[in-house]
Please model this.
Amino acid sequence: MTAEDLPTVAPESFRERGEFGDRTAKRTWGVVLAAGESSRFGEENKLLADLDGVPLVRRAVAPLVESSLDGVTVVVGHERDRIRPAIDDLPVEIRTNSAYETGQSTSVREGVRAARDHDADGVLFALGDMPAVDVASMDLLLEAYEYGVADALAAACDGQRGNPVLFDQRFFDRLADVEGDVGGRELLTDRHGARAVETGDPGVLRDVDRASDLEDLR
Model:
């Protein structure tokens, strides 16, 4: 999706020009969606694939842990007993989505539940198959949220929308009602006041669907 589909905001608009007012502290919970079956990758579970000696899912989770988020939940499902050892020494909460086969929406629902359980004002969703997102990109979304840029935000690079995405608690009910193999895409529209935040980080666009995608990251 391009900037024409969703208005894109440059960091200087809220950092330097103050177009959105003063910054207000918010409690934001991070959620990593890592429950899928990775069927397009092949026989191997892509979340456990080696990337420079580290499981891919661990590389995806680590930036959230290092960011300014108030906490992190990882939602697992498919081969959860194999995924857990890759991340269980990190300071994260691990929750199981036993209904993962019905689509990503069930993991989103579990993530919303985690955010509510931790009294969060907002939730940031990241994907377990995106290991190249910068910590700075995570923090930039949090900063935009606290400056009041929008209640629904997506990371972008060169005007192209990517991940992670962030939603204020006013969207929690709608996110919990989403069905099928979608997340919160239907809420990331100009109609809902959503905005993309330019990060300059190519990692927000680089997910691993196939083995060739992983080779491109090496």
In short: Residues 8-217 form a domain with the Spore Coat Polysaccharide Biosynthesis Protein SpsA; Chain A fold (CATH 3.90.550.10).
